[in-house]
Amino acid sequence: MRRGACREGGVVLAGTVLDGRYRLIEPIGAGGFGQVWKAHDPKVDRLVAVKVLTGDGSADSSRQAARFAREAAVAGGLSHPHIVTVHDFGSAMDDGRLHAYLVVELLRGRPLSVVLKDGRLPLPDAVRTAVCIADALGTAHGAGLTHRDIKPSNIIVRSNGQATVVDFGITKSSDERHDITTSGVLIGTPAYMAPECFNGTFDHRSDLYSLGCVLYEMLTGHQPFTGTSWHLINQHPNEQPAPLIKRRLSTPPALVNLVERLLAKNPDDRPADAFQVMLALREIDRRYFDEGLPNRGLDRYVRSAVSPRIAAFGAVTHILLADRAPCPACASEPGAGGAEGCESCQGTGEASAETTHRIRIPPGVKAGQRLRLKGLGWPGRNGGEAGDLFVVVRIEG
Predict the structure, then answer these.
(1) Which residues are catalytic?
(2) 356-392 tens-digit pLDDT
(3) CATH (residue range 300-326+353-395)
(4) Does the annotation list 51 as a binding residue?
(5) Angle, alpha carbons 39-71-128 (nearest 5°)
(6) CATH 1.10.510.10 is right for the domain spanning 109-289
(7) What processes does the entry annotate via GO biological process terms (predicted)?
(8) pTM score of the predicted model
């Protein structure tokens, strides 16, 4: 850190240069860890966001520094348009104080928590924001990561209407080397925590419950449960929130049903994974909120496991897609029904159709990365173009 930078009480101020590189311009956020700054990186001449932790050498500040390192390792290993991009992580000593910092992309937008201060969102906006969150969680979960703190302040609504998930500092990994869980410590935000989290157990379905809480709030303008932490610890496992349909009568039944499933007390009663939630939300958006105009088809997502060697050096491989198509013997369109006794479709009117596609795995592909095959998704409606096929990479071993 540059000597002579302005500071008070150990908090860095405007003009500070971290490690001779990142010049802090103005604060744009704050939390228990310290501050978030708009900063300039002259090495690549770009504006970035820098989360700065000011430590005092205590055990708590050491844990916060470990959390910063954790966020850099976790989010830095993910590649996704709805997950914040991590550029750098470091620390510097100055006047006996540790200043750990995390450099991420500077997002143009507002935290969802700020947006919600103006009231509930329009139904299409709530659904489309939830699509972005579910999409991001699907990639994180596919890489073996559970976020554990999905809440409005960790979701940035960008100027183009898309949403980005931030703050992976308390993420739970399937790799025990990266698990910073401390026995007896409540990790997360009680207003958005799944019931099982209060007992110290959680998995990817706990994130889906938190998404349900956020979606409920976007739709109604109210959190499912309110009160002190002690109230919330009792409410989440034992009480039901006010019926969503009573708080917003215009909510489509399919959306009400999905929120109820996300908020199920038993994780087994929730949707199986985040991609399933994303596709359900996109179908709700298509069914209830389009205007009968040409619509682009839904994107399709499939998972593909690759070996560490292919992930490192790349290769051309093939993927097999299985679909249902009109039975060539007796039906002209899906769902039309078929002829009784038809040997091809047993009277359903549909037959299995398999297609094989070549896909190039680029060198250095990361777990959870999405490889796009344009136009191979579901067909569009009313003459709209087909969606894209995204192959979500999983690295074996």
Answers:
(1) 149
(2) 888 889 898 888 888 888 888 888 777 778 888 889 8
(3) 2.60.260.20
(4) yes
(5) 85
(6) yes
(7) protein folding
(8) 0.70
